[in-house]
Amino acid sequence: MEKVEGNFLSEVDSMEEIDFLFHKLALDEDLEIPEGFKFGLEIFLGKAEANLEIGEEGRKSLRESKYTEKHPNRRRGLVEMWGEDRVGKYEEWSEVRSKDCPRFTYKKEGDLISIEGSRGRGLRQFLTDLSSLTVEEMNEEDFVKKTQWRVRKGKEYFLMKKAEKVFGKTSEEHKMAKEQFKKVKGGAKDEVGVVAMVPWCEETDYSYVDIVWEYLREGDWPGEEV
Residue 207 pairs with which residues in a beta bridge? Predict the structure, then answer.
């Protein structure tokens, strides 16, 4: 969506529209992208001191797909927008908030190997997608689709682990929850191309995407408390 000049939405209206969209995303609900969504993001991320005038190398980085410790391809663009200190703190915060999520693993010569430091990649990818959208390196539809997929995976994983804890690993409840998670587990070659999940917050009973947005909308930063 191109930047709209003039009085299309007041700042208050824009904030309410964006808040509503992120909350619906965080609850894994269907939604429609509000008018002026991206333009509103420019206003509020600018207030959060994001650098929206990044160079071509930073933009090229944001167009990459991977963001793990082993493959931090998208990190450069994020650092250009937010600064090394903030990105480092966010990575730490993301890993702490994702402590109950599975680590990224791959098979090598028949053995399952865990890649340390890659937990939290769903939250890293979410912030990078949000930043990419704001500087027009991702379109709104792809941003919402990928975010919904990450949220859904995190929610179903949480429900699966909760069923295991409450009813036991051999229970019908856990088996059903596990099957439901398998339906959204997907991978790099699925219809959306999303691997990493955004964790589900047990205390609030919604996804951490809303919590990240709450920080940013107030001009704060997730990770300052780490």
Answer: 200
